[in-house]
Amino acid sequence: MAWQKQSIYLLLFFVKMLAQFEFVNINVADEGLKAKAIQHLTQAGVNLSQYNFILNPTNDAWCRDHGPAFVVNRKEKKKAIVDWGYNAWGGNILHMILTM
């Protein structure tokens, strides 16, 4: 997911609940927004050890479809990112895609 300026309280609730069960990766546009996100998360009483911040500007708060999908080979203890060739739901909103 991406940390956006809007909907902070909804994002706080969502990531706080999610972090009870999963490690959470959060995209932030820059170090300034990262600091603000950490401030809000700290004030909400979240465990920051459950979060990782990735500097990656985006114009979309939800990255499940266009963000990276991580896979883990537990036997070999290797991680990788899958590139699905996302095309914004058939190319309808290509302006939302940021390709690595």
Summarize the structure.
This protein has helices at residues 8-18, 31-43, 88-91, and strands spanning 24-28, 51-55, 69-73, 78-82. The protein is α+β, with helices and mostly antiparallel strands and 100 residues long.
Structure overview:
The model has no long low-confidence stretch (mean pLDDT 78). With 100 residues, this protein is α+β, with helices and mostly antiparallel strands. The protein has one domain. It has three helices and four strands, in the order H-E-H-E-E-E-H. The protein is 28% helix and 20% strand.
Keywords for this entry:
two-stranded antiparallel sheet; 3 helices; 4 strands; 100 residues; alpha+beta
The dominant shape is: globular
Order of adjacent strands in the largest pleated sheet: 1-2
Q: What composes the largest sheet?
A: 2 strands, parallel
N-C termini distance: 16 Å
By DSSP (H or I, 4+ residues per run), the number of helices equals 3
